[in-house]
Structures are given as structure tokens and as C-alpha cells.
């Protein structure tokens, strides 16, 4: 499904929806995979804190962050609805973008370790694809 959609996109076709008889479906082309719809949910940003310019979306009406502001830091923190947080920042010594991803299970909720690892892996893939966009910006991606 994903490979065929990719081929169609390369030919200039528009892919709106793809499915299989079993269970999988693909809505849109953000994630070219029949199970792509859950990973789209993973990047739902609940709130943002920009440490560089001093913005925290959870603190209206002035939106001033609790954390200290540093104009030289170039750092943004995102908090997702999947109990995941990630930070994007530039390196102070090298021409690179760094990211840090944190994930937790809510207190009192027992989570399956393999499920958490799978969710974390998909979230990292989505962060790289949707936020950093190495292909779009012609960046060199070094996998972990």
C-alpha cells in the first residue's frame, strides 16, 4: 500500500485513501504505511515552550515560561498527547540540530514495555519526518 502510493505520487497522482481487506488503511500521505494513522496521532502537540524567545502556550495571557529564557539557546520543547515530550535545539559548537525525546507511562498505569518502545520509535520517526524534515531541507540524517 505504501509503496504503491509512493509510486503513484512520483507519477503526479494524488493518493487520498488506501486500504486492504484485512484491517489496515492509510489516510493521506503523511505516513506511507497502512498503520500510519496511529503515528499521526502521536505528533498531536498539546503545548509548546520556546526557551529562546520566552513563550509557554500553557501560561496565558502573558505566555511567559517558568524556565529561564536564553536568546542564544535556540531551543523549543514540545509536549505531546501521547505522554511524550521532545526538545529540539541547535548545537552551540557544531552545525547540527539535536533532539531529545522523553516518554513516560502515567502514574498507576502499567504499560507494556514493548508497546512503549514501539510508540517511542514511531514518535521519533514522526519528529524527524514532520519537524526536522531532513529530506526537505537537504540535511544529513544520522540514525541512532
TrEMBL record:
> What organism, scientifically named, is this protein from?
Amphimedon queenslandica (Sponge)
Q: Does the keyword Magnesium apply?
A: yes
Any one of the GO BP annotations: purine ribonucleoside salvage
Output the Gene Ontology terms for molecular function: metal ion binding; phosphopentomutase activity
Query: Where on the tree of life does the source sit, at the highest rank?
Result: Eukaryota
Q: Which of UniProt's keywords are assigned here?
A: Isomerase, Magnesium, Metal-binding
Q: Name one GO cellular component term.
A: nucleus
What the entry lists under Gene3D superfamilies is as follows: Alpha-D-Glucose-1,6-Bisphosphate, subunit A, domain 3 (3.40.120.10)
User: What name has this protein been given in UniProt?
Assistant: Alpha-D-phosphohexomutase C-terminal domain-containing protein
Amino acid at each position: 500500500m505504501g509503496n504503491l502510493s509512493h509510486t503513484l505520487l512520483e507519477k503526479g497522482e494524488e493518493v487520498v485513501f488506501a486500504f486492504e481487506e484485512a484491517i489496515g488503511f492509510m489516510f493521506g500521505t503523511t505516513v506511507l504505511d497502512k498503520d500510519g494513522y496511529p503515528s499521526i496521532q502521536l505528533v498531536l502537540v498539546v503545548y509548546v515552550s520556546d526557551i529562546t524567545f520566552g513563550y509557554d502556550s500553557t501560561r496565558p495571557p502573558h505566555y511567559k515560561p517558568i524556565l529561564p529564557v536564553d536568546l542564544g539557546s535556540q531551543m523549543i520543547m514540545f509536549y505531546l498527547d501521547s505522554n511524550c515530550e521532545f526538545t529540539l535545539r541547535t548545537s552551540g559548537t557544531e552545525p547540527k540540530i539535536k533532539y531529545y525525546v522523553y516518554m513516560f507511562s502515567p502514574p498507576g498505569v502499567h504499560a507494556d514495555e514493548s508497546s512503549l518502545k514501539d510508540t517511542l520509535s514511531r514518535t521519533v520517526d514522526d519528529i524527524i519526518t514532520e519537524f526536522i524534515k531532513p529530506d526537505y531541507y537537504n540535511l544529513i540524517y544520522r540514525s541512532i
